[in-house]
Amino acid sequence: MDNIFSSYLKFDSPKSNKEGVIGYLLLFLYLMGVFPILAVPFSLPFLLAAIVPAALITCWGIIYIIDPYKYEKSYYLYLGVYGVVNTYVFFVSIQKMLYKNLEINGWAPFMFNIILFILLILGMNWMNWKALYSETYYKLQQKSSIPVGWASIAGVSYILGQIILSVVYTDSGISILMIVCLTLLSFFTAFLSINIHRYFFIRKHMDRALAIYPEFGLPKDERRGNEKKKRKRRKKKKRKKGK
């Protein structure tokens, strides 16, 4: 059990969290997710389906940009929900290209993609749970040789599904390439959804988390590094007064 805690309770600095939120929102959510939906031919229903959750997750993310130290404890919940939302936006973008750019018809491709989307999210979280309690994360951190073939099943099946769907319904090589690129990005954003489980795991074992990282969740002014800086400033001021 100690190996599970030590491997799973790893924290990035609040500063890194802040930079991550900015990068994820600008690069993955808007540039690679929403922007393709705005391309010709334009479709308002597809845009609304993507922009509403995108706007909500952006508003939520602002607090981690403004004060990443104060809201550090909830950051992992945000990151997990962001992963689901961004994967969904990629899903909408793919549907827009299939139905508007490639002009396919019928509900079959849409239903097929919904099933793939759900399986991808569930598959990633199942993979995370299995990796955690089988101590796979710990073994990876110890650089042990372990079998990881099962770990890519969810992502590979999603990618293959999108390729097959594109080939069946269109002969456009460029469209296939774009759909595959978005599918590959979906593999990454879906993986971020595992942070939802991580958030509740941290809350359940907060005593262990604080033992590993005592400053977890503390305001910036109360952290050791900032206290040391304050002490140095005070000493400098005293020296200047003494002179």
TrEMBL record:
Taxonomic source organism: Psychrobacillus psychrotolerans
Region spans: Disordered: 219-243
Keyword Metal-binding: no
Record's keyword annotation contains Transmembrane helix: yes
Protein name: Uncharacterized protein
Keywords: Membrane, Transmembrane, Transmembrane helix
The organism's place on the tree of life at top rank: Bacteria
Compositional bias annotation for Basic residues: 226-243
TM region(s), chain numbering: 21-40, 46-66, 75-94, 106-127, 148-168, 174-196
